[in-house]
Amino acid sequence: MKVTVCQLTNVGGVIPEEWNDLTRHIEKEDSDLLLLPEMPFNRWLGADYTVDQDQWDDAVEMSAEWLDLLPEFPIVMVGSRPVVEEGVNLNRGFTTNLGSVNDLHAKRYLPDESGYWEARWYQPGTEDLAPFDVAGATAGMEICSELWVLSDAQALGKAGIDLLCVPRATPHSTLDGWLAAGVVSAKVAGAYCLSSNLYRPRGAGTDLGGMGWIIDPDGAVLAATDASAPFVTIEIDLDLAKAAKATYPRYLY
User: Fold this and answer.
1) CATH code of 229's domain
2) Number of domains observed in the structure of the chain
3) Distance separating the N- and C-terminal Cα atoms of the chain
């Protein structure tokens, strides 16, 4: 299957011109799956220490408007978005597939520091991670900080995932560390690790570092985005992920 990862410039949400470029890229590459960054359809609210529920509600509405359009695209998309459920703010994963939007788990581990005041803006989810089907593959999702919990990658690998999807919002200074976590998680799960990130140029406001990636089940970095190439698509072999479950280190557990 062909998979696409990206870095999307976050200025009040998605920039229409950049989205049009991404759409053309997907059509040209004939991609089967697009992984979006964490909460891409609204301004990154975690940058603000002071919580404004009206802004959160606006972000929920903006994301819902985008999701109303996404099912029209002939490609499966995976990402996360803000929601309010029974009066509780959450950051919930989703997939889209030809007319339907399906819920995944809500993010469970929430940063609480400068630029990433997420624990102030919304509550941690409580659902367990679970595999889901996308474009003929079995996938799992870890939303940003969840990538650091290697026991989850191990459990998802044992459940048979081919893809580990990681939508992110992470800063420039920590990109090397995040990539290292992606490499280890791919090896632990025996699955391709895909990640997409929000982006702002250095010094241009909110610190969002970009760099999406595609890593193979043995930890080789196959592709990564940057400012000159914000979208990348490659063809991956799902049989490699299935075979990886029986090889080191996966057979140890």
Assistant:
1) 3.60.110.10
2) 1
3) 28
